[in-house]
Design brief:
Distance between the termini: 63 Å
Order of helices and strands: HHHHHHHH
Radius of gyration: 18 Å
Strand content: under 5%
Number of domains: 1
Number of helices: 8
Shape: elongated
CATH topology: Tetracycline Repressor, domain 2
CATH superfamily: Tetracycline Repressor, domain 2
Largest sheet: none
CATH architecture: Orthogonal Bundle
Length: about 190
């Protein structure tokens, strides 16, 4: 009978190691060691390091707060939920997301793994689109509106992870949303 693998632990170990070391220095042997599984098992299930990283990112991001967003009738509450979920998810998995964006141009085998990023962005943009349909947010591309909403958080996250001697600001979700709505409310 095959050993049951704790996929949550495996995928967390994979994303953490990938974020820490990058693609080239991440080995399946080290992932297996951290996750407490046999390296051969990883290849049987995922066939390659790139496939394992893609599966790990897909799982972690889909089960993250940013992957669990739902629409309500309250635009302000929904936007605050988006901001808070983004902040929480970036705290846990931002390093892996940044690493894949940096590594993808050098490693074409990671291109498919980047598809793990899209479902969460589409869900959040869909929430914005629904509120546009209700007249709570002005017209325009919902994905661009989402980027306007989370751009300050993205920049703070980049600064925070860069190692630069710049202190990344901490954002209050309600304030971020209020500023966003000030510039993006329906006329």
């Amino acid at each position: 009978m095959p050993k049951v693998i704790d996929t949550d632990s495996l995928f967390r170990a994979t994303t953490q190691l990938f974020a820490e070391r990058g693609y080239d220095a991440t080995t399946t042997l080290e992932i297996a060691r951290r996750a407490g599984v046999n390296e051969v098992t990883l290849f049987r299930r995922y066939t390659s390091k790139a496939n394992l990283i893609g599966a790990a990112l897909s799982h972690c991001l889909s089960t993250s707060p940013f992957g669990q967003l739902t629409l309500t009738d309250n635009v302000q509450s929904d936007l605050i939920a988006i901001v808070e979920a983004y902040q929480s998810t970036f705290k846990d998995f931002g390093g892996a997301v940044m690493t894949i964006m940096i590594e993808m141009p050098r490693h074409s085998e990671l291109r498919e793994a980047t598809s793990a990023l899209l479902p969460n962005l589409r869900t959040a943009a869909g929430i914005i689109s629904a509120h546009q349909g209700k007249g709570s947010i002005g017209p325009g591309d919902p994905l661009q509106k989402l980027i306007h909403l989370i751009a300050p958080l993205m920049m703070a996250g980049l600064w925070g992870r860069s190692g630069a001697q710049v202190e990344a600001p901490v954002f209050d979700a309600a304030e971020v949303v209020e500023r966003f709505l000030h510039g993006h409310r329906s006329a």
